[in-house]
Amino acid sequence: MTLVRCMDVSRTFGHGEQAVVAVHGCTCEVEPGARIAITGSSGSGKSTLLHLLAGLETPTGGVVDWPELTDRARDIAVVFQGPSLLPALTVAENAALAAILTGTSEAEADERAAAALTTVGIASLANQLADTLSGGQAQRTAIARALALRPRLLLADEPTGQLDTETGSHVLDALLAAADETGAALVVTTHDPAVASRFEDRWQMNDGRLVAPAREGVS
Fold first, then answer.
1. Cα separation of 116 and 110, whole Å?
2. Which stretches does DSSP call E strand in the chain?
3. The domain that contains 92 carries what CATH number?
4. What percentage of residues in the chain have a pLDDT greater than 90?
5. Cα dihedral sign, 155-157-158-163
6. C-alpha neighbours within 13 Å on the C-beta side of residue 184
7. For the segment 109-163, what is each residue's pLDDT rounded down to a tens digit?
8. pTM tops 0.85
9. Which residue from 15, 67, 95, 185 has the fewest beta carbons nearer than 10 Å?
10. What domain count does the chain have?
11. Residue numbers of the domain that contains 87
């Protein structure tokens, strides 16, 4: 069973002499329950690969398909490096928003959001406005927003990249715990070896090319 599969996928930005190939001929797949860290330096193509897995980017070569995901808007959730919350809404309203926008009733979305906020450890902040949050609290809210979709595939692009080490560790704890609780497959991009060490499967991007995925022990 495969949630998403890339087959000889490439992604080029621009045209002619200005063209930049961000991903070259990538073949990989993500199975249910996977815990994958995509590592690489800045500009290596790891975020572009994540966006291809999410369907946010269209490949310029090869094929991406989602054989087990019939409703990608609900089945796939993405946590970005910046939380992108709506400042005038409360934490609970932000957490429920994506579910509401994809067709979940407001009552159910609120219930899911409350459960997700509990999972990531910030239920006590439910009525606080988003623009009053710390960086770590805001990122946890973004994770809760993703979880309220009840996704089968959870993708996170440098989720600790803008946080200090301690806060980033707490956010990563919350992300892993949330994926464990919901059973979602989890794929994160990171340049931080400490973050990557928390994942059993580690893929490395190097100049747009995916090094053969390898399974290692979790530290």
1. 10
2. 4-13, 20-30, 35-39, 61-65, 76-79, 153-157, 185-190, 201-206, 209-215
3. 3.40.50.300
4. 78
5. negative
6. 28
7. 999 999 999 989 999 999 999 999 999 999 999 999 999 999 999 999 998 888 8
8. yes
9. 15
10. 1
11. 4-215
